[in-house]
C-alpha cells in the first residue's frame, strides 16, 4: 500500500519529474490529505506540474479545489486555463458554472471557450442553458458552435429530456412564468445579491451533506432511480424553507421568490455528484438482485429434480443434496436472510458514499447559527 506521507514528502524533491510522479500518485489515491499540497503545487510549481496538479485535483473532486481552479481560469497561459476549464467540469458548484460562462464569453482562446462549454454540459445544470443558447446564435468558429451544441445535448440528457428542443421549451416556459413575476433586470440584480452572500456555496454544500446524511433510511432494496430522485428531493426540501429563511436573515431581508427558486436550483445542482453515485449504486444493486434471482430459479429447479428422483426411487437411500442452501435453512428462511443481507449491503454502500462528502460539513463555519 502506498504511504501518503511518503508521497507528500516526494513533493519536496528537487527533481521536477519526481514531484510530478508524486502529484500523479496523489490524484490516483484520491485522498483528501492531498488537496492542500496539490493546491500549493498549482500555485508554485513549473507549468507541466501545475497542469498535472490541476488534473489530480479534479480526480480527487474535493470542493476546496474550486477556488484555485477558478483563479487558474484567469491565468496568462492558455494551457493552464484549458486544464482548469476541463477540471471545473467535474464540480457542480454554482461558482464553477458562473466562471465557466465568463470563460465561454470572454476568453481569447477558442480552445478554452470550447472546453468551458463542454464542461458546462458535463456539469449538467439547467442554469446556463439560456446563455448557451445565446452563444449558439452568434458567429463563432465551427468548433466552438459544435461544443456549445454538444453541451446543450448533454444537459438535456442529464435532466431526462429527449432532445434539446424539449429542454429549451421547458426552460423557456419556466422563464416566462418567472418573467411575469420578476422582470429580467430585477432577476439579474437579485441573483447577484444572492451570489454575493459570504460563503454561500460552503453553506449550500453543508446543507446538502447534512440533510442527505441519513438517506439510507428511506431507500429500500427495491428502489429505482426515479424513486430515489424523488425521495432525495423530498429530503432536501424538508428543511429548505428554514434554510432560505436563515439566509434571508443574514442578508437583512426575506429572500424573494426568484432568489428562493435560484437557491433551490443551487442546492439541487450541488447534490448531483451524490445523486449520481446513489443512482449507480442502485443500478449495480439491481444487477446483483437479478443475478441472485437467476440463481434462485436454478436452485429451485435442482431441488425439484431432486424431489422427483426421491419419489421415483423411494426405497433407495436418499441421495446427498446436489446444492445446499446456507445451513440447510428452509427456502422462505433463506429468502428472508438474503433480503436482510441486501438491505444491510445497500445501507453500507450509502454510508460509504456519504462518507466521501464528509468534508462538505467540516469546513470551518464557526459563526454559523443553527437553522
From TrEMBL:
SUPFAM superfamilies assigned = ARM repeat (SSF48371)
Q: Which SMART domains match?
A: EZ_HEAT (SM00567)
Where does this protein have coiled-coil stretches?
none
Q: Which InterPro entries match?
A: ARM-like, ARM-type_fold, PBS_lyase_HEAT
Offer an example of a GO molecular function term for this protein: oxidoreductase activity
Which protein, by its recorded name, is this? HEAT repeat domain-containing protein
Amino acid at each position: 500500500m502506498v504511504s501518503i506521507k511518503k508521497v507528500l514528502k516526494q513533493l519536496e524533491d528537487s527533481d521536477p519529474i519526481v514531484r510530478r510522479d508524486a502529484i500523479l500518485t496523489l490524484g490516483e489515491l484520491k485522498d483528501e490529505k492531498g488537496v492542500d499540497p496539490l493546491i500549493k503545487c498549482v500555485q508554485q510549481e513549473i507549468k507541466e506540474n501545475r497542469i498535472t496538479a490541476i488534473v489530480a485535483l479534479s480526480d480527487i473532486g474535493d470542493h476546496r479545489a474550486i477556488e484555485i481552479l477558478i483563479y487558474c481560469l484567469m491565468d496568462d497561459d492558455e494551457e493552464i486555463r484549458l486544464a482548469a476549464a476541463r477540471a471545473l467540469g467535474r464540480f457542480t458548484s454554482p461558482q464553477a458554472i458562473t466562471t465557466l460562462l465568463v470563460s465561454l464569453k470572454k476568453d481569447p482562446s477558442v480552445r478554452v471557450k470550447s472546453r468551458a462549454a463542454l464542461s458546462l454540459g458535463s456539469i449538467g445544470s439547467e442554469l446556463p442553458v439560456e446563455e448557451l443558447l445565446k452563444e449558439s446564435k452568434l458567429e463563432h468558429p465551427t468548433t466552438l458552435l459544435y461544443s456549445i451544441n454538444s453541451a446543450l445535448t448533454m444537459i438535456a440528457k442529464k435532466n431526462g429530456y429527449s432532445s434539446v428542443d424539449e429542454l429549451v421549451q421547458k426552460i423557456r416556459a419556466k422563464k416566462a412564468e418567472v418573467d411575469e413575476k420578476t422582470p429580467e433586470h430585477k432577476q439579474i440584480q437579485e441573483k447577484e445579491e444572492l451570489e454575493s452572500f459570504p460563503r454561500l456555496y460552503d453553506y449550500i454544500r453543508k446543507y446538502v451533506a447534512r440533510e442527505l446524511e441519513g438517506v439510507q433510511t428511506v431507500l429500500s432494496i427495491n428502489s429505482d432511480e426515479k424513486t430515489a430522485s424523488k425521495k432525495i428531493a423530498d429530503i432536501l426540501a424538508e428543511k429548505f424553507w428554514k434554510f432560505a429563511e436563515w439566509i434571508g436573515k443574514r442578508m437583512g431581508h426575506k429572500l424573494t421568490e426568484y432568489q428562493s427558486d435560484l437557491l433551490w436550483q443551487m442546492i439541487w445542482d450541488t447534490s448531483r455528484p451524490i445523486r449520481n453515485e446513489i443512482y449507480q449504486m442502485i443500478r449495480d444493486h439491481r444487477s446483483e438482485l437479478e443475478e441472485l434471482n437467476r440463481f434462485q430459479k436454478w436452485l429451485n429447479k435442482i431441488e425439484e429434480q431432486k424431489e422427483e428422483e426421491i419419489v421415483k426411487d423411494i426405497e433407495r437411500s436418499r441421495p446427498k443434496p446436489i446444492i445446499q442452501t446456507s445451513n440447510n435453512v428452509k427456502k422462505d428462511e433463506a429468502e428472508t436472510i438474503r433480503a436482510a443481507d441486501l438491505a444491510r449491503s445497500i445501507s453500507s454502500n450509502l454510508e460509504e458514499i456519504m462518507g466521501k462528502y464528509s468534508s462538505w460539513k467540516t469546513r470551518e463555519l464557526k459563526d454559523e447559527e443553527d437553522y
